[in-house]
Design brief:
single chain, alpha+beta, Neuraminidase, four-stranded antiparallel β-sheet, globular
């Protein structure tokens, strides 16, 4: 009886020691595994801001009456872009495919648009109108209704009758689905943080434009990169996109290869900054390096050496165990 218990206890103790030994080996091996993967694939996710912004797709002006170009938004459920002009409710709006081709247009849109936003929380295509700050008939935060193909129906519904936290009548607020707020600015460097729940003012952010060396801020427009928590404005004197974090601190600048508008005509969506190009009558998309996967210099043969070393180390450890 005692011999049986002793044997069982010894077996359990031996198993525990073996598991602890395996854990110690794994702890030593994990850094080598990580380094091997990094060297083999040589990629690391990081946000970068190139000196010169890289062109992506181009969205041409749609047919029909066209006023002042506003912004662009992207609906991931349909893989389509939405854009229009503003200035009068009878203007047209267009839908674009992933390559920038117009697949649907409607006129009138029945909304005096200032900014388009896709709400990832509700799945709705939302529009902040002219003078949403005060509200009134056809003003406030409006849903632009879509059919089963993601095309405009012309129907609308009021989501918020007014947005008193907005910074002025002409502002083009950008939506942050994670915090469920809008970021609104007028002509200066103050950004109003506006509740999506009731349109009230939650906070303000002061952009450090002095540190950025901005010449002339484009009026009303503002882009927001949710993955990075970046606010983006345009400098119309230097034709640049200027980036700040949500504390207002300056992050970086990227040069655009077009003449930047003095007001309106800009927005950020689907990892791209879209800016109105008056010379071609459309929105030019730019990748300003937001949440890109950046390659670092690699030597594939060195990665194989690391991998071989890893396998050899594990095999050697197993042979030691068997000899015990």
């Amino acid at each position: 009886m005692n011999m049986t218990m002793h044997t069982t206890t010894g077996a359990i103790t031996g198993t525990i020691k073996q598991k602890l030994s395996q854990l110690r080996v794994l702890r030593r091996v994990l850094p080598l595994i990580s380094l091997t993967v990094l060297v083999l694939f040589g990629q690391v996710a990081q946000a970068q801001i190139p000196t010169n912004a890289n062109r992506t797709i181009f969205l041409p002006q749609g047919p029909g009456s066209f006023g002042t170009p506003m912004n662009v938004t992207y609906h991931p459920g349909f893989d389509q872009y939405y854009a229009s002009s503003g200035g009068f409710p009878s203007a047209q709006a267009s839908v674009y495919d992933e390559n920038g081709n117009i697949v649907n247009s409607i006129a009138p849109i029945n909304i005096d648009v200032r900014s388009w936003n896709f709400n990832a929380n509700s799945g709705l295509l939302e529009v902040v109108t002219f003078n949403a700050v005060s509200g009134g008939t056809g003003r406030g935060l409006i849903e632009s209704q879509l059919d089963g193909s993601g095309f405009y129906t012309g129907g609308t519904s009021t989501l918020l009758p007014n947005m008193p936290g907005n910074d002025g009548q002409q502002t083009m607020p950008a939506y942050d689905s994670g915090n469920n707020v809008f970021y609104s600015r007028n002509t200066g460097n103050t950004v109003n943080v506006v509740s999506r729940v009731d349109g009230s003012l939650s906070n303000t952010i002061t952009l450090d434009t002095a540190a950025a060396g901005i010449g002339t801020l484009s009026s009303y427009s503002l882009g927001f990169s949710e993955p990075d928590g970046w606010l983006i404005v345009l400098d119309s004197s230097n034709n640049t996109a200027v980036i700040f974090d949500l504390s207002g601190a300056y992050v970086g600048t990227s040069i655009l290869d077009i003449s930047v508008p003095f007001s309106y005509g800009m927005g950020f969506t689907n990892g791209q900054l879209f800016v109105w190009d008056a010379s071609r009558n459309g929105w030019q998309g730019y990748g300003v390096g937001v949440s890109e996967v950046a390659s670092i210099p690699t030597m594939p043969w060195l990665g194989l050496v690391f991998l071989a070393s890893l396998l050899g180390f594990v095999g050697f450890n197993r042979r030691i165990k068997k000899s015990h």
